[in-house]
Amino acid sequence: MQYSEIMVRHGELSTKGKNRMRFINKLKHNIEDVLSVFPEVKVSSDRDRTHVYLNGTDYEPVADALKKIFGIQGFSPVYKLEKDMNLIKSFVQTLMTDLYREGLTFKISSKRSDHHFELDSRELNHVLGDAVFEAVPNIKAQMKHPDINLKVEIRDEAVYISYEDIKGAGGLPVGTSGKGMLMISGGIDSPVAGYLSLKRGVDIEAVHFASPPYTSPGALKKAQDLTRKLTKFGGNIQFIEVPFTEIQEEIKAKAPEAYLMTLTRRFMMRITDRIREVRQGLVIINGESLGQVASQTLESMVAINAVTATPIVRPVVTMDKLEIIDLAQKIDTFDISIQPFEDCCTVFAPDRPKTNPKLHNAENYEKRMDVEGLIERAVNGIKITIITPHEEKDEIEHLINNLL
């Protein structure tokens, strides 16, 4: 017999008081986004749990997807039966016979929300327990920590039986902690930073800087594929492609080589902040890890951050490279990140970047450029794509013109 639905437990959401339903409804929406690749699956939620109705869809791939969605404490696959005691007893006997192994202990946990049903919860426990002993004489009952806790729920429309408890990803539903702009390159660190932000409920939009012809279509697709890997944790993500060629050529022409990276990052920060403001984000997120490269020393961070008062969230700032790689492998972004497509930071990287850039020097070099004009043209040329769990469903939302 196939599972009919999966019952999802909400975890941390039970502590949210008056805001609880807002969190639950957001989780429902995220589950629908992630499971949109299974067209027959339907989702509904109430205060206590979310129900994922399989409608004939194979259980395993749906369960694999649910394991990754933030906000889910755990879930159980469920069998659906008609409200007939003979049928219920027979099914329980068959199920426990199939599950039995020597020394196995069990418990019946009944719940009756349909108070017109012929037996109450206590009576159900006794009747179904006796039925199990009849079918499997050697099995032992155990009220605390049994091997199998067989849960039987009598609802108005049917009977639901489950026995497995599968651990979920925990965390908060993506989108319940506000929006942040993730600066995503093609490297290892920024997708991990995105993953850690998603875990605490931040709705991310991915901002990627492209410098054709110096960067290739392969580099752009790499960043989109990394973003797609992040959709499995909470649903669709807006991917914002920023044209950056003019700015990088201007920096290279008018600033000393040692300051190319500092000025590049200052422009990226300004543009990301401008996009954040228009799209009502609250923070900027990046994958900087302290001391990993020249632009990630404290001195560099100070010089780069000076262009904005917006909070910069750095989820991996204290992690070393091996820790970040471990997480990248866990979330399945590592193999994409190491593909040999260079991003715009790499192709314009100086041989000897300044590790302790002076803010006043950076500001003086920028006086040689039309900073506001360069930023405005870049922001006006952004392209926004909705990245979905499946590439063929991605949609170009719009080409932003005259955004500011």
From TrEMBL:
The listed locations are: Cytoplasm
Query: What catalytic activity does the UniProt entry give for this protein?
Result: [ThiS sulfur-carrier protein]-C-terminal Gly-Gly-AMP + S-sulfanyl-L-cysteinyl-[cysteine desulfurase] + AH2 = [ThiS sulfur-carrier protein]-C-terminal-Gly-aminoethanethioate + L-cysteinyl-[cysteine desulfurase] + A + AMP + 2 H(+); [ThiI sulfur-carrier protein]-S-sulfanyl-L-cysteine + a uridine in tRNA + 2 reduced [2Fe-2S]-[ferredoxin] + ATP + H(+) = [ThiI sulfur-carrier protein]-L-cysteine + a 4-thiouridine in tRNA + 2 oxidized [2Fe-2S]-[ferredoxin] + AMP + diphosphate
What pathway is this protein a component of? Cofactor biosynthesis; thiamine diphosphate biosynthesis
Q: What is its EC number?
A: 2.8.1.4
Q: Is the keyword Cytoplasm in the record?
A: yes
Gene3D superfamilies from the entry?
3.30.2130.30, HUPs
GO MF annotation, one:
tRNA binding
Q: What is its EC class?
A: transferase
Q: In what residue span(s) does the THUMP domain sit?
A: 60-165
Q: Name its GO BP terms in alphabetical order.
A: thiamine biosynthetic process; thiamine diphosphate biosynthetic process; thiazole biosynthetic process; tRNA 4-thiouridine biosynthesis
PANTHER family the record matches: TRNA SULFURTRANSFERASE
Family affiliation: Belongs to the ThiI family.
This protein's name: Probable tRNA sulfurtransferase
Species for this entry:
Streptococcus urinalis 2285-97
Gene encoding this chain?
Answer: thiI
